[in-house]
Amino acid sequence: MGKALQKHLIIFTRLPCPGRNKTRLIPALGAEGAAKFHDRLARHTFGLASAFCRKDAELKLIVRLDGGTPEEGRDWLGECDIREQGGGDLGERLDRAVNESFLEGAQQVVIIGTDCPELDERILEDAFEALQTHPVVFGPACDGGYYLIGLSAPCPAVFQSIAWGGPEVLRQSLAASPGAHLLETLPDVDLPEDLPAAMNVLGHDLEPSSTEQFFRSPNYQFPKP
To answer: What is the SS3 assignment for the chain?
Structure first.
């Protein structure tokens, strides 16, 4: 029998902290509200990824955390494989995570963020399937970035000389990865006008004014793991 295909699904996220999460939402939600909204997005993504990985024994879920220790991450999300992202810009941190996964024996690595509530299991399945015939897979975001990247081998160039956070991220990344496969384009949640659609996915059909009241409410409780 052949060796089982090892696959890593990595979540890049940040420990919730007022003033450090979703800063472009602060005018609508306040610093604490923006952090709470980040918490909600991250838990939604973690739940999706956990359920997806439980269906496939070849899949390993890893959380790469910024702004906190693995112990703090487990206090937040529960017992799971949580590792610090380490230093450097986003490209250096992504490249580090990818390289470590391949060194551990992974043959396919997919990384997702937590800003895309419309990401679902079907798209994750499509990403891993596409890696069977393509070296790199991207999930394009509407703002010119990407919500997912998958690789079937290390590719340092795809993370170098990228203007992270700008509208040219995907274009620049594609230029460094010939033969890449594109998944469907989905919206990230970055600005106040993105909130109503995101809340529909997350289970609360709220108008922007109600959304603001909801996340500013002192009665809001962080969900339990």
So the answer is: CCCCCCEEEEEEEECCCCCCCCHHHHHHHHHHHHHHHHHHHHHHHHHHHHHHHHCCCCEEEEEEEECCCHHHHHHHHCCCCEEECCCCCHHHHHHHHHHHHHHCCCCEEEEECCCCCCCCHHHHHHHHHHCCCCCEEEEEECCCCEEEEEECCCCHHHHCCCCCCCCCHHHHHHHCCCCCEECCCECCCCCHHHHHHHHHHHCCCCCHHHHHHHHHCCCCCCCCC
Domains of the chain (ranges, CATH numbers): 7-216 (3.90.550.10)
pLDDT tens digit string along 184-196?
999 999 999 999 8
Has this prediction a pTM greater than 0.70? yes
